[in-house]
Amino acid sequence: MQSKKLWLVLGLLTIIALLIAACGGAAETPAAGGEEGGAAPAETEEAPAGGEATPAEETGGVSIPEPEEGMFNVAFVYVGPIGDAGWTYAHNEGREYLEANVEGVHTVYLESIPEGADADRVMRGLARKGFDAIIATSFGFQFGMPEIAAEYPDVAFLHVSGFLKNDTNFGNLFGAMEQAKYVAGMIAGARAKEDGSNRVGFIAPWPIAEVIRLGNALTMGVRETCPECEVDIRWIFTWFDPDKEIQAAQSLLDAGATVVVTGADTPGPVQAAGERGLWGIAYDSDTSCSAAPESCLTVPYWNWGVAYAQFAEEVKAGTWQPSDWYMGAEEGIVGVLGITKGEFPDAVPDWVIPLAQEKWDKMTSGEITRFDLFTGPIYDNKGNLVVPEGVTLTQEDLEGLDQATIDSFGLDREACTICMNWLVEGFVPDAQIPAMPEG
């Protein structure tokens, strides 16, 4: 399922409260890689365990399921509902993959858990119950996890999309979605070229490094197949708001885009494009095209199961070492619908399919890494040289981890020097990265 601007804001402890509200039930605050969900579930007698309800104890109004005796028990904490067709749905697919592919594993999940104190109570409750591993899948969940992990040293904790960890039983995980977005951009550019519009629209949730990185990769992919194309952008300041997402898509279409690419959670923008006989590219889940299959060109999607299976196997074997775990396309963490599974619709130009396939094959073989995508010379959309020729961005550059962030959280990492706070050449020249709204 990641800050005012990640390169600036995560370093300021005064806004952690803003982040904690981010991808949970509070609707208008950012989360990196996480998605906004519904309210916490009402107080109940039972909670889902795999697909079944189990006896549970009450913890802050949320039921804590029981582990299964004799099994390796893994609990998932979700910020949204599993039916969101996006971020949480993809994580739940990963949970199901884990249970089906690793022997002796039993999983449970708790959905729509708000970040902050509620999530902390839930994770403590799960650890107290005796779960062997806890996986938390939204950015703001990470801030309470160091303390909880220290309280329960025999439990393995894995956080998705953040940057905090310890040396013993708490690690983090993310993946190179920028690779899949680049290939999706190639497809978008080809379609816009065929349409004669030479214009693609991008719906950007938040002005943070993750979103900027993915938007830049998308735009570079667009320019590979349509050098004359430009990418327009609309900032919506939310991960999940179907109305705002559709309105942003309509605005981009009104401005001349014939393809809209969403970085938010719902397939609404694809449907909005389809209503005009135009095209869209969805996000997060390999099922996201199902709402508008004829107008959906592709989906860059997450495949969390491969990571969850590896994590569980290593914890079971006693070999897991917490780290800043950032998986690439070669490890199977991301996919592109039409290439890695399914088929492209007729709307995808025939000539771009072998080009996209070749690019993807080079990514999955390791020949083209995320760092190769961000090797200079790279100019911004104002014509300034940002990445000199022969210079390659570091992982900290890609994540926008500036010195303030490093110092504030005591991270054992180098600060970014070319921080991800710029829009690449190919975005319309007047596009800017906005300030985060107050509050």
Describe this structure in words.
- This protein has 439 residues and is of the alpha/beta class.
- It folds into two domains: 46-175 and 312-331, Rossmann fold; 177-302 and 337-409, Rossmann fold (3-Layer(aba) Sandwich), CATH 3.40.50.2300.
- The chain has helices at residues 6-9, 16-20, 87-101, 117-129, 145-151, 177-195, 209-225, 242-254, 268-274, 305-317, 352-364, 370-373, 395-399, 403-409; strands spanning 46-49, 52-59, 62-65, 72-77, 105-110, 133-136, 156-160, 170-175, 199-204, 230-235, 259-262, 279-281, 296-298, 300-302, 324-327, 334-336, 378-379, 385-387.
- The strands form five sheets. The protein has a six-stranded parallel beta sheet with strand order 5-4-6-7-8-15, sandwiched between helices. The chain has a five-stranded parallel beta sheet with strand order 10-9-11-12-13, with helices on both faces. The protein has a three-stranded antiparallel beta sheet with strand order 1-2-3.
- Strand 6, helix 5 (145-151) and strand 7 form a beta-alpha-beta unit.
